[in-house]
Design goal:
The chain has 165 residues and is α/β, with parallel strands linked by helices. The chain has helices at residues 4-19, 34-40, 58-65, 69-75, 80-92, 143-163, and strands spanning 24-28, 49-54, 98-104, 119-126, 130-137. Helix 1 packs parallel to helix 6 (143-163).
């Protein structure tokens, strides 16, 4: 079960997006739809949430969001470059004016010395011109804690971007 703090943050984010007359599109990988779920806990979520994509495989990232296969080959699915292309793809395939993308390694396996479990990239794109990506390192042994931490960080990132738009 999610704690009340993250649910309250999601509601605050929802309200800020609504006040700013934005619509959001979400592209998720390692968080598996958790960020989208958090937005839909608010009644009237359809006023701000245009669409959400859960693209877990590389193939779906390419086919659904338009992530370039060359980008996946050169940088890997867990990279700033892929997060940026996911956000761009979500924005271009929606009626939104802000998009957020999450890609990372939730574990418990799949990590390496270069890309350890808990490495997450979150990209936020505003109005098809302004993109920013942040790298996070969540030091948890628990897959669900990493997913929640990624969604929580995405909410903070979105709030910051909307407040400073």
């Amino acid at each position: 079960m999610l704690d009340q703090d993250i649910l309250n943050k999601a509601l605050a984010c929802y309200k800020k997006i609504k006040e700013s007359n934005f619509k959001i599109a979400i592209a998720e990988s390692c968080s598996g739809g958790l960020l989208s779920f958090l937005f839909t806990t608010a009644a009237g979520a359809s006023t701000i949430l245009d669409c959400a994509f859960v693209t877990y495989s590389n193939d779906s990232k390419s086919k659904i969001l338009g992530v370039q296969e060359e980008t996946l080959r050169n940088y890997g699915a867990v990279s700033k470059e892929v997060a940026n292309e996911m956000a761009c793809g979500a924005l271009l395939r929606s009626n939104a004016n802000i998009a957020v993308a999450i890609t990372g390694i939730a574990g418990p396996g799949g990590g390496s010395s270069c890309k350890p479990v808990g490495l997450v990239y979150i990209s936020c794109m505003l109005s098809k011109v302004n993109i920013d990506c942040k790298e996070y390192h969540f030091n948890y042994d628990d897959r669900n804690k990493i997913q929640v931490a990624a969604a929580d960080a995405a909410l903070d990132f979105i709030l910051d971007r909307v407040e400073n738009a």
